[in-house]
What does this fold into?
Amino acid sequence: MVFKRFVEIGRVAFISFGPHAGKLVAIVDVIDQNRALVDGPCSGVRRQAMPFKCMQLTDFVLKFPHSARQKCVRLAWEKENINEKWAATRWAKKIEAREKKAKMTDFDRYKVMKAKKMRNRIIKHEMKKLQKMSSKKGKKPEKSEKAQKSEKAQKSEKAQKSEKAQKAQK
It folds into this structure.
């Protein structure tokens, strides 16, 4: 397994649990093997020591010096447009959708169910149409109905004659 996100100065991290859960911070300094000094100037997280266990590293890295002041971190954060980039990621969209789904009322869930049913009904109807069209195109050109009826009548007459012949032989 090749790691692509490393703990480094300037790495942006997502706080997964704790009092600041759901916010973004930048790693300003590494204290020891288990903790880092983090700062979230644009997300409302004050500079503090935070364990790596409650952080998830993102793909974003800011350029600022070791143990930079909050002003320097804020300038780098705004220059890189981290908030907009984060909002555009699948990770953030998934979290937002999860929160939105959790806040739904019973009536909202009912409306979603009805909309899904309607969508599936429309899809099913269109699929049937397409299958019908493809089956018509794939078949050989059929004879007219009158020709088919006359063939059936001839076959039934032959079958009746053969049955009478078999009865006569017995």
